[in-house]
């Protein structure tokens, strides 16, 4: 699990798929690595993801004796972006899952905030994605000032390098990263014959947490996916 916000994942009472105790109860060791801080990055976040994750994985294996062939990866939101980025750079993980992940920096940057629909004023003025991309997602410039760096930091540009089986889940009403980003990732991987599965949850926003039925389904899908690639084949 990729940490997306300081101390957020330390809350043991997190509901649904975000309750990490559920995965431990299924026999998994759960690691929540701290990601590089914004001021520590240069050139955008894509190529820095390994710095926060791989050393933590190595240390866990050293301390706990976990099988290095049975390491999985999943994250939500910026953690979904980190998941896409990591598997585009390393084959270290036997399986991965990205929930509401960002795949195309330009699309995310310019997306309108649908929660502002119906309110007076210009729709584009309601959106906060440009600020989120340049702060929380750690992009160093506005998209119109350096379009090349947005291309270089978009996971959709590196699907030919992905070999890790990837499960994707995305809400159709996501106001941060459009479901089209997951659909694009899936299409590019599927056209290359790579193992990928896409789950679209209708009516869900930027967290698969509104419908109890959806929460149960996604949790079952995650466990089935990781059991298949981390337990059944070794």
Could you please describe the fold and organization of this structure?
With 234 residues, this protein is of the alpha/beta class. It has one domain: Rossmann fold (3-Layer(aba) Sandwich). Helix content is 35%, strand content 9%. The chain has helices spanning 21-25, 49-64, 78-87, 105-110, 129-134, 147-152, 179-191, 212-231, and strands spanning 72-76, 95-99, 166-171, 196-201. The protein has a four-stranded parallel sheet with strand order 1-2-3-4, with helices on both faces. Strand 1, helix 3 and strand 2 form a beta-alpha-beta unit. The chain is globular, with a radius of gyration of 17 Å. GO terms for molecular function: serine-type endopeptidase activity.
Features:
disordered N terminus; single chain; alpha/beta; Rossmann fold; 35% helix; 234 residues; 4 strands
């Amino acid at each position: 699990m990729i940490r997306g916000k300081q101390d957020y994942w330390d809350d043991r009472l997190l509901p649904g798929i975000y309750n990490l105790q559920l995965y431990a109860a299924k026999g998994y060791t759960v690691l929540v690595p701290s990601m590089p801080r914004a001021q520590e990055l240069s050139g955008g976040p894509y190529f820095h993801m390994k710095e926060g994750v791989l050393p933590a994985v190595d240390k866990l294996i050293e301390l706990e004796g976990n099988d290095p062939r049975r390491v999985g990866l999943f994250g939500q939101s910026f953690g979904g972006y980190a998941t896409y980025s990591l598997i585009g750079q390393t084959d270290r993980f036997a399986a991965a899952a990205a929930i509401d992940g960002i795949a195309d920096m330009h699309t995310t940057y310019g997306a309108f905030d649908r929660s502002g629909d119906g309110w007076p004023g210009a729709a584009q003025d309601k959106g906060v994605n440009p600020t989120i991309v340049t702060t929380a997602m750690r992009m160093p410039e506005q998209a119109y000032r350096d379009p090349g760096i947005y291309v270089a930091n978009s996971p959709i540009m590196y699907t030919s390098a992905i070999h890790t089986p990837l499960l994707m889940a995305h809400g159709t009403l996501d106001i941060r990263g459009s479901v089209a980003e997951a659909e694009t990732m899936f299409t590019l991987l599927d056209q290359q014959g790579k193992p990928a599965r896409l789950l679209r949850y209708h009516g869900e926003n930027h967290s698969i947490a509104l419908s109890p039925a959806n929460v149960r389904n996604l949790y079952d899908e995650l466990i089935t996916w990781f059991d298949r690639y981390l337990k059944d084949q070794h």
